[in-house]
Structure formats: C-alpha cells, structure tokens
Amino acid sequence: MSTTEFLNTDPFDAARAAADYIAEETGVDAHDVALVLGSGWGDAAELIGETTATLSADEVPGFSSPSVVGHVGTIRSVLTKEGKRALVLGARTHYYEGKGVRAVVHGVRTAAAAGCKTLVLTNGCGGLNENWTPGTPVLISDHLNLTATSPLEGATFVDLTDLYSPRIRGLAREVDPSLDEGVYAQFTGPHYETPAEVQYAKRIGADLVGMSTALEAIAGRHAGMEVFGISLVTNLAAGISPVPLSHEEVLEAGQAAGPRISRLLADIIAKL
Ligand code: 8IG
Q1: pTM for the full model?
Q2: Number of folded domains in the chain?
C-alpha cells in the first residue's frame, strides 16, 4: 500500500487489512494484548514469552519502516506462559515523520482490529523530576496533548477520563511498589524542547516530555482498548539539570535499566 493509497483508504479499513494480513501470516486468529516498543524498550519484550512469528513491518499493509535508527521495524506474535497472544509492534510511526496522524495511529488501530483488548504503550522520554535519574521507569497517569491535533476525525467526542487504566497501573505497582507516576506531555518534535518550553510544560502540569504516546492512547481508547502507558526516563529534560547530559551517559543508563524494565514489562503482562 503506497502512502497515497493509504491516505485515500478509510483508516479502519486499512487497519482491518493489516490485521487480516497479520492473522494470515502469524497463524494467530486473534491477539489479546498489543505492545508498542519505544526508545530503550527494544529488548524489553524478550521475557514476555516465546516469539512464534516475526514479520517485517514494511510487509504489513499501511506500515512503513521506522525512520529512526535503533527503532526495531518488526511486528511479532508472542505466546506468553499464561497462554495469551501478544502482538509486539517494534515499529512506531512518529508524528514528526510527516506521514500524518492516520499513519501514527495505524498500528494501534491494527492491534484493535487484530482483537487486542489491552494496549501497552512504552516510550523513552525526558523527565522533569530531578529524582528520576536516567533509566527510571515511570507510569503514565495522564497526558497533555501538545500536538494541536487528534487521531479522531469528525464529531467523535471520546471521553478521556481515566485514559491510562488505573487498574493496570495498580497491577504495575503490585509488581514494583517503588514505581512513580507522571503526566506525559507529547510535543511534536523532532527537536527537543528549549529550557523555556520545559518550564512551560512543568507549569501546566507535565512530569515527562516526549514525542509519542498521547495520540496513540487516544486512538486506543476510541478503539475500545484498555490503555497502559509506561515511560523510560532516558534524560532530564532540557534545562532541568545544570549540566548538559552526555549522550553516552544516557545510553549507559538505558542499557543499565534493560534487565529491570524487561522483567517489569513481562511481570505486568503476566498479570493482565
Ligand atoms: I529519549 O527530552 C527522549 N525523547 N520531547 N524531550 C522530548 N522527547 C524526548 C526526550 C526529551 N528524550
């Protein structure tokens, strides 16, 4: 499906086509839970279960290869110990890629069309709380959509109260009671914020700043899925730390967090 074809197709028909392709190729008629892997979370799905099928994202209708190096462009079907089918989307389309909001939420709509009742959104982001050293996972309690757009079109008045499932956040805290929560602000990117923008975000209630998740969460709620979001703070947001963080430190912190966030994700999914 070309970009033009995709844009001329009803987004839910496009999602149906992708879901049918996934069912055919994985041999799994219906998946239960979808997992979107963001920066730093690429290896975190390894403990969830046994991968039974791996598709290259660009072979699935409406998907395209990720433009960010380090983002994994695969769609996997994973069988958990509990017998649940997880659809692991390693390829997220970001708003800053300029492919439009429909492309951004195509994976989420495909997951819903594939039968998923639960949507787990992960991301790497900047933190506004100085206690959150790079490598700290934080539960998303709510969001500020600063993209000035919506994945919903027309008079689609969807309620977003409790968008980030209090039930699943509770399960996550059963796994790790030390987990903090925060409000995630989605900026469009691809540039990072200025220190003034970070202060603005702080004053309007943000704890985390990133370039994904909010639009996907809205589409997930609209599609009827229970949404869970978890961020990996990979850096302090611009101007929060007196010393500019070195990219090396950030990568190291992300690496060091690997085993913890992998275990965490697998344990949360086991409890769903
Ligand atoms: I990793 O500091 C990562 N992604 N907007 N700001 C925004 N996105 C991010 C940041 C950050 N760090």
Answers
A1: 0.95
A2: 1
